[in-house]
Every structure is written in structure tokens, then in C-alpha cells.
Amino acid sequence: PCRTSSFTEMFMNCRVPSSKRYQPTEYEHAANCATHGLWILPSLVGGSLLYFHSMDQWHRVAAWLYGSGLTGLFITSTLFHTAAWKIGHLRCLEQRFHMCDRIAIYFFIAASYSPWLMLRELGPWACHMRWLIWVMACLGSMYVFFFHERYKLVELLGYVAMGSVPATVILSMRAGVCELAMGGILYMVGVFFFKSDGLVPFAHAIWHLFVAAGAGIHYYAIWRYLYRPEDLISVC
């Protein structure tokens, strides 16, 4: 049996077996929606700023890819958590939103790497990684479509692999590596909370905050080192 204090019960339900989905409390539902919904407008503005400060066609394409991936992540996450909160009894529809949320993560990871791979000279492997990351995103999406929530550990490892493999290509950079590493560390630490529903109150909302913080640091790095050439310290 689950034993929690009356105060904790207001903000967190009991942990469930791995075969079942955790059911957030009303407070957790609201926090899950707010912690990503609040970033939709800033991500739209941020992507637009990159686009309008683009110097050439490749900068515009990279800005469009990155802005779309960033905004799409926050929109799909907010839509899913809103659906889970308000129409959770419509299990089939909620499941579709959940699949879209999981798919958006793959494309967000690919979009986050695209500006660096497209706008920096990083050697021959970067040319292959530019399209390989999108192949990985498509394969991950197919996995979600056919095996959604059947093998949760496999899905988590897929995200980690896609987030770490392209990083081996951009480690040769000097300017921007510290920011990228810091953002990556925030994502990795946030995974602890992602897996802590029923153990830590508002665990999923805390995970959302780590995602937003990591994305913010990565956006700053892209803005400073790829779209503000006067701020460049060194060019790789």
C-alpha cells in the first residue's frame, strides 16, 4: 500500500507499476500544462528573431528548422498535458496526443543540432550527420507509432542516444561547447525527475523546467555564436 502524508496527497498520487501510466493530481496537471505552455510565445519570438537576423539562405533554413522544432515541442507538450487533464477519459484521443508529444521530442533534438551542423565547418562527418539526425528522428517516430509505451526503457535510451551521438561531431568546436554541454547536463539531470512520478511531487513539471532551461541555454549559444558574428571569439 502507498503511504503518504495528507499534505503530499494533495500534490502527488502514489507511484504505479511500470505497466501502468501515472495519474497526476489536479495540481500536477495544471503545473504540467503551465511549465511548457508559458514558453510557446517566447519560442515563437526567438525563432523569428533568428530568422530575421539570418545572413543568407542557410541561416534562414537553420533558423526555420530550429524555431519550428523548439516551438513544436512546447505546443505538442502543452496540448498533450491539456488533453490528459481535461479529456483523459477519451483514452484513444489522449493516446494520439501522447504519441505526437513523444514524436516531437525526436524532431526537437534533430532541430537543436541542425544550426551547428549546417553553419559550422566541422569536418566530413558533419555532412553526413546533417541528414542522419533527421533519419534518426524519423526512425524514432516510427518506433513511437508502432510500439508506443510498450518498452519505455528502450524509448528513453533512444532519446539519450539521439541526443549524444551527434554531439561527438561538434566536440571539435571551441566557441559554444560550454553552453551546449551545460544545456545537455540540464537535460540529463532532468531525466531523474522524468522518471520520478509518484516519488517527487510535481516531478514531471520539474522535468519541464529543466527542459526549458536547457533549451534556453542552447538558444543563447545559437544566437551568440551563429547569428551574432560580431560576438564570435573564434571560428571553428
TrEMBL record:
PANTHER family per record: ADIPOR/PROGESTIN RECEPTOR-RELATED, MONOCYTE TO MACROPHAGE DIFFERENTIATION FACTOR 2
Pfam families, alphabetized: HlyIII
Xref: InterPro entries: AdipoR/HlyIII-related, Hy-lIII
Superkingdom of the source species: Eukaryota
Localization in the cell: Endomembrane system
Family: Belongs to the ADIPOR family.
Transmembrane segments: 30-52, 64-83, 103-119, 131-148, 169-193, 205-223
Keyword Transmembrane helix attributed: yes
GO cellular component: endomembrane system; membrane
Organism: Gouania willdenowi
Identification of the protein by name: Uncharacterized protein
UniProt keyword Zinc present: no
Lipid bilayer topology: Multi-pass membrane protein
